[in-house]
Structures are given as structure tokens and as C-alpha cells.
Amino acid sequence: MIKICIYREPLRLSESSGRRKSTKKASNPPSKRSLARSRASLMDLCMCNDFDLFCTFTFDPKRYNSKSILSCKSYMNTWIRNAKERHSKNLKYLIIPELHKSGVIHFHALFKNYEGRLCESGIFQNGRQVFNIPYWHFGFSTCCKIDNIEHVSRYISKYITKEMITFPGDKRYYCSQGLRRPVRSHNVSLDFLSSLPPLMKHLIFSKCEFSADSDCEYITISKDDLRNLTDFSANSSSLLSKKSKKTIDYFKSLML
Length: 256
Prior knowledge:
The chain is an alpha+beta fold. It contains six helices and twelve strands.
């Protein structure tokens, strides 16, 4: 998946840190901008890694301190450490907390390389079989196999809200080390999009999304669509600028 961000205002890249700096003062409250960045980062992590399980973990309030984020994270880390030692050495994870109205905390998690046992629950949700994880002793667990990571990434990003409970350091989620992250390139030229046939242009820009809390619009393009796009542009290379050709070559390198 390729994501093209189109910023509303020019951005200046700091030579010292490489961070983006806007030439316009932020009109949105910092909290909204922060939430938008967290949602974008969370979705990027989902799309860049091959997570194959979506799980929910609860904590039994009669046996554990289920209203303390520190305690719940400690329980979760203990379980993850045991899972790695016993059966899932290469387990990768992404964990988001959710606070129930009662004040009790539960976690949503995405897993990759989980090799422990799953038990059939006899329940199906939206046509998907729901499993339980027998090794989770801190409360109740449910687990479903992921068949569309894009849909899952949109779903879990909805948990990033102003009212959500956060981990120490105001972190809204935490994840394992070594997860793949997006490869970034700045100031790519999109001039070649103007030469596209109307139908192809509609297919590409119909996927354009907009968030009022963000600094930009963005387009997500599947590799199949991008391959068709670059093939057409290559056949129309005489109409493209040097910068557009360089952009197309860059997109092709991402598909290797």
C-alpha cells in the first residue's frame, strides 16, 4: 500500500531534525492535531506489518487491578513475555487501551507470529470465527483472524480519542520493537496524474480521504493500482516532466 499525502500549506523541513514544520500557525487545538498524528501513525503501523490476529483482552476486576493502566500493562507484558518464551519467539504486537464506562480497562491487540493454541468459541461475528486464547488467565479473551488489514486499521484508529486512557508518557498505544514503518519521501511530483485518462483518475482519487483534524489530504493506493498507474505513465513518458519521471521511478522501487 502506498500513501500519498497532499499538504494544504507548504512545509519546511528542518535541516537539523528533519521534522516537518508548517509555515502557517496551527488553527486547530494541539490536542486535535496530536490525535490526528497518533491515528495516522497507528494506521501506518497496521498497514506496514502483516498482522494476522485481532484480539481483545479483559482483566477480571475481582482478581486484578483492572482500573490501573500501569497494572494492566504489567499483566499484558507478563503474558507476552511468557508467550515468547513458551511458543511464540518472534511474536510482534500492537496494543491499544480502551476505558469502559465502568472505569475498567481492556486492551485491543494486533498480533503477528502468534503460535500458541487457539480454542474455538462457537461464536461467529460478521462471518468470522471467534476464538479464545486459553493461556490468558487475567480475564476474558477473544481473537479473530484478520482478512483485511485496511479495515482493521480504520477500526482500531477509532479508539484514539480525546477521552481515551493513555499509557505513561501520554502514549496512546505501544508496540513491539522492530516493526516495519513507512519509507518516506518528500516533495515528489504528482504532475503525471494530470495526464491520466478520466476513468483511471477517478479510480485513484475516489480513494482520497480527508480529516478535519489533520494537516493534509491523503490518497492510499494499492500496489496493483499503482502498478497500472506507473505502466500507463511509462507509456506516456514523452508527456511527463523530469520530476514526474523521477517520482514514477521511485514508486516502482517501492513495488520491488
